[in-house]
Amino acid sequence: MLSLLIALVVQRPAPPPVIGHWDLTLTGSNGQKMPSWLDVVYSGDRTLVGHMVGVVGSVRPISRFDYANDSLKWSLPPQWEGGNDDFKFAGALAGDTLSGTVTTPDGTQLTWSGHRAPALLGTRPVTWGAPKPLFNGKDVTGWHVVGGDNQWKAVAGVLTNAQRGGNLVTDQTYGDFKLHAEVRFPKEGNSGIYLRGRYEVQVEDSVVTSASKEATGGLGAIYGFLIPNQNAAKGAGEWQILDVTLVGRMVTVVLNGKTIISQANIPGPTGGALDSDEGKPGPIMLQGDHGPVEYRNLTIATAR
After folding, report:
1. Percentage of the chain surpassing pLDDT 70?
2. Lowest-confidence range among 33-47, 160-174, 211-225, 241-255?
3. Which of 92, 93, 90 is nearest to 101 (CA)?
4. CB atoms inside a 10 Å sphere around CB 45
5. CA 184 to CA 150: how far, in whole Å?
6. Would you call 180 exposed, middle or buried from its count of C-beta atoms within 10 A (0-12, 13-18, 19+)?
């Protein structure tokens, strides 16, 4: 029996080089760059499966990849996108690069390319500098708006988004950091804090329907990837305190004094990311495209 098992192990083919995490970028006909993310793994010893984060929405499963002769094909259903058909991806592997085309559910043709995601190990010891304010309490100096009209302003020392509009992004970029933020939202409010502009800490009223909570994870979740170990949220209309530590992709989230995510690895960028270039520092982005939200006492301490 032992000799048979050894023979089976020896005969098993090497895993295909396409296995791994890939940072993707889709390109529209107008040249617009849209970040995405792909995960390819083995299920058993012969079937390739995985996950993908599209331009919008949460991570979604891929039940099977077709891979042969360095060519990769897969499909997945729409989530928040328009159209009724599946996404249909086709690409080719060349070294550590993937590239190809996609037909979207509404029939639009796009090109895409990708590279292997960097390791970004989060286990190194870190010495932190003193916290510095991100918001001066008077105006939005040091920030700029993307993706819509500017609805952000300072009101009595509070950074306020009165209605749905653009997202607010720091001019400065960051690598590893400790972020402190206090946030308040109305009933059924929804916002988010994007770490390095790529990983969304969900900000929402956690008193929501079970279907919505399952999809987003609740206040303090890493959208679509990491769900808090408890609901430490206060009710809507109250100030909530978030402390987030990010080293590499390793994240810890403390909500209202309770550790709800502890040194967990974020697999890749979440939907709505600014880019998928995970090897570079990135900004802090506050989501304002869902509706009213308020932030105060925003500070950041960076790794020395």
Report:
1. 93
2. 211-225
3. 90
4. 9
5. 19
6. middle
All structural domains of the chain:
2-116 (2.40.128.120), 132-302 (2.60.120.560)
Mean pLDDT of 40-54: 95
Question: Do β-strands 177-184 and 240-247 pair in parallel, antiparallel, or remain unpaired?
Answer: antiparallel
**Beta strands 177-184 and 167-170, pairing class:** unpaired
**Residues 195, 124, 303: CA angle, nearest 5 degrees:** 50
Amino acid at 8: L
Find the mean pLDDT for residues 123-132. 93
- pLDDT by residue (tens digit) across 258-289? 999 999 999 999 999 999 999 999 999 999 99
Residue 199 sits at φ, ψ, to 5 deg, of -120, 115
Identify the CA nearest to 190 among candidates 286, 58, 71, 76: 286
Q: Which of 286, 57, 56, 297 is nearest to 151 (CA)?
A: 286
List the structure tokens of 276: 């998928």
Question: Contact, 267 vs 39, CB < 8 A?
Answer: yes
Cα–Cα nearest to 237, from 289, 294, 158, 173? 294
Return the closest-CA partner of residue 80 out of 102, 111, 53.
53
The secondary element (H helix, E strand) that includes residue 210 is helix 210-216
Instruction: Name residue, tokens 């929402």.
Output: 204
CA atoms of 202 and 222, how far apart (whole Å): 6
Q: Is 2 helix (H, G, I), strand (E, B) or coil?
A: helix
pTM for this prediction: 0.92
